[in-house]
Specification:
This protein is α/β, with parallel strands linked by helices. The chain contains 34 helices and 17 strands. The longest helix is centred in the C-terminal third of the chain and has 22 residues.
């Protein structure tokens, strides 16, 4: 065994560090002793060193299986910087030419190469397997090992083939490393890699320097983000979006507002993507707007803020992405924007996938929702999710702890919840328990005769969200456990059974209330509108109402609330300025603009308002070429689903584009498509609804018309027809 002083000397020699961090030394000693090793270490904890140093000290070449080409390049470059010889580290993946691969193999055979990075896909190729059989392998390292598990946030089926391939190439010690893994995922990794006997090293998941906050996602999110970035004085930040389209749109919006920014997503040309990544690492650009493809293993220590434009699909993904902030131990602000409808959209995307996959996806989304809406310390919630207990009641660095809510006594409700879980024999999920307490005779409740339980209807007046909050807080307190493997069935722990025998006070807090926009007044949960000038907003709404009566059209046909809010924020006083307002466009400006401009001019003059440029978030012409080609395709009477396919959009995205076209005042005719897919009386019924509707929102329309009779797509299509014919 290598002594402490010898190992520290090697650390200094190769990497220039005087001391090891956390568990690093113990992990490295275990690898040098040729034992299987499982490493659970948060982002920024120094995982890579745990296999890099042993590879330099052991005979042969270490094989590192890694999921991302960008990550391989990044780490190979770093290793070469530490060594005198470039050949010390190489990678083999699809980005290399045949000639380059031959050069790599020559270095390995000659004994120069101590570390070889391979993608799991490359590892499965017969020629690579045959080559690796001929060389001395010191050990295998599986990086980002959570990719093995379907319950992990970045599941890759090819990772499940690693063990059989290793067996084929030849046995050697194995080290698996991950920054995020729930207890369920940890077990999955060890079982699949055949390393249940491995020595396990767990570091705390607590990143004390990170501040966590969840904000309500309103229609002023772009303005909020611009304002926030401007206050950061040039500090580096990452903004994560779920779709490639949103990445490009947001990057453009930030750019035209004078922010140093570049986009990054898997659909971009690989050379451009690499260049953008390097520009960010070299601090030639302040902000990267990216999908989750960005950041795995990217070692930029001074990222000062991580913003989630959309909530991620899982808490593991969220933890890993926020973990890219403050890796040097300095400030790291993690701000996520939450709207329930975003999670609904993600649920819809899962339709058509295998049932088991949908169940897993839904469980992960429920955890994300619970985290976003909860009023409990966010650090406590995150650490509990990863199987770690955080004992402090107030972490002092999350929004919930900075503004704690009043507690309420939950003892009585907790007792009923625990009794109900036992009464249903610990075989049901939280939603089912809540249905029983509320007295909701759903098909599941009645088919199991749970409407005959004593607790059925015992809490009819309690809010469903509050009952869910008590269940979650009872989990954190250790009274209830959730059997993730069986899709989230609730079970009582030993402590929960003891609590039932001798209940004590159980203070609970209500969840945060993330209200959807109020349909007509656009009042948010925080009160007030999103307009900078509430008085002008009110005047403009009155004018819209007056015009609506005069022209006999619903108010939303003239201008939508977000357009009025933008007018009451940026004070447009010319036709050109009015056309730049989102949702206005040349057609609407010409048709309705004069009277609105007159009112705004008078208001500005009377109140001596200076129109500050920084209040105006400049908007980008949203891919006008795409909109033109959609209009042309509709003119040629091409079916909308065919247009969507040809543009690489799903139907929802295409309807977004068409709605933007008609809201801006352009007239289009989709009657040819409606005739193909809908009954004429159905079209008339929806059309008549919008004639008298107070709002153009889809949800109330579906409620009024009957969700069983009409689909969301049908209502949106007829709304397009209505707006085009009546408004334009």
């Amino acid at each position: 065994m290598t002594t402490h002083s010898e190992l520290t000397a090697q650390l200094k020699k190769y990497f220039g560090f005087d001391n090891f961090k956390g568990n690093q030394e113990a992990i490295i000693q275990n690898v040098l002793s040729q034992n299987d090793t499982f490493v659970l270490m948060p982002t920024g904890g120094g995982k890579s060193l745990c296999y890099q140093l042993p590879s330099l000290l052991m005979e042969g070449t270490a094989i590192v299986i890694s999921p991302l080409i960008a990550l391989m390049k990044n780490q190979v470059d770093a290793m070469r910087n530490f060594a005198e010889e470039d050949g010390i580290a190489h990678f083999i993946n699809s980005s290399l030419t045949r000639q380059a691969i031959d050069a790599v193999k020559a270095d390995i055979v000659s004994g120069k190469t101590k570390l070889l990075y391979v993608a799991p896909e490359s590892l499965t190729k017969d020629e690579n397997i045959e080559f690796l059989k001929q060389i001395k392998i010191s050990f295998y390292a599986v990086d980002e090992a959570h990719c093995i598990s379907e319950w992990g946030h970045d599941f890759r089926p090819e990772y499940r083939r690693i063990r059989p391939i290793i067996n084929d190439i030849g046995a050697a010690p194995l080290i698996a490393l991950t920054a995020t893994a729930t207890p369920k995922v940890q077990h999955d990794i060890q079982k699949n890699l055949g390393m249940l006997g491995a020595t396990v090293y767990k570091s705390s998941f607590n990143r004390e320097n990170l501040y966590y906050e969840v904000r309500n996602k309103s229609n002023t999110i772009d303005k909020d983000i611009i304002k926030y970035i401007r206050a950061q004085n040039g500090k580096s930040g990452i903004i994560y979006c779920l779709s490639r389209k949103k990445v490009e749109e947001l990057a453009e919006t930030l750019k035209v507002n004078g922010i140093s920014v570049l986009p990054y997503h898997a659909g971009m040309d690989s050379a451009v993507r690499s260049q953008n990544q390097d520009m960010f690492l070299m601090e030639k650009v302040q902000i990267i707007v990216a999908t989750i493809a960005f950041g795995m293993g990217i070692d930029k220590p001074d990222v000062r803020f991580v913003i989630h434009y959309d909530m991620p699909k899982s808490l593991e993904g969220y933890y890993q992405e926020t973990g890219r902030g403050g890796r040097d131990g300095g400030e790291g602000q993690c701000i996520a924007y939450y709207a329930y409808k975003d999670l609904d959209k993600l649920r819809n995307f899962m339709q058509g996938k295998p049932v088991a996959e949908q169940e897993i996806g839904n469980q992960l989304l429920l955890e994300t929702q619970a985290y976003a809406e909860s009023s409990v310390c966010r650090r406590k919630l995150l650490l509990h999710y990863f199987g770690e207990e955080y004992k402090q009641d107030n972490c002092g660095s999350c929004d919930n702890c900075m503004k704690p809510k009043k507690t309420m006594e939950g003892q009585e409700l907790l007792v009923v919840i625990l009794e109900t879980i036992l009464a249903v024999r610990e075989k049901f999920k939280a939603e089912h328990i809540v249905d029983i307490l509320k007295g909701q005779a759903t098909s599941d409740v009645t088919s199991y005769q749970h409407d005959e339980l004593d607790s059925f209807g015992s809490a009819p007046d309690e809010d469903e969200k509050f009952l869910q909050a008590i269940i979650r807080q009872a989990m954190i307190a250790g009274f209830i456990s959730k059997d993730i493997e069986n899709y989230g069935l609730l079970r009582l722990t030993t402590a929960g059974k003891a609590y039932l025998k001798k209940p004590t006070s159980f203070p609970v807090v209500k969840d945060n209330d993330f209200e959807e926009d109020d349909e007509e007044t656009n009042v948010k949960s925080g009160g007030g509108t999103c307009a900078a000038d509430d008085v002008l907003f009110s005047i403009l709404k009155d004018l819209r109402k007056k015009l609506s009566k005069k022209l006999e059209v619903p108010p939303f046909v003239i201008f939508q609330d977000p357009s009025l809010e933008a007018m009451a924020t940026t004070y447009p006083i010319t036709m050109d300025e009015l056309q730049n307002i989102p949702g206005v466009g040349a057609g609407k400006a010409k048709r309705y603009g004069e009277e609105f401009l007159k009112v705004i001019k008078e208001h500005v003059k009377e109140n001596e308002i200076i129109r500050p440029e920084d209040l105006r978030v400049r908007t980008v012409a949203k891919k006008s070429q795409l909109k033109v080609s959609i209009i042309q395709a509709i003119d040629r009477k091409i079916a909308l689903d065919d247009i969507a396919d040809s543009k690489g959009l799903d139907m929802g995205e295409l309807l977004d584009e068409i709605e933007a076209i008609v809201y801006s005042g352009t007239k289009i005719n989709i009657d040819y498509f409606l005739r193909e897919i809908m009954e004429p009386d159905h079209v008339d019924e929806i059309f008549d609804y919008f004639r008298t509707a107070e709002s153009d929102k889809i949800e109330p329309a579906l409620r009024e018309l009957g969700e069983d009779d009409f689909s969301e797509v049908e209502v949106r299509l007829v709304r397009i027809k209505f707006l085009s014919e009546i408004g334009n």
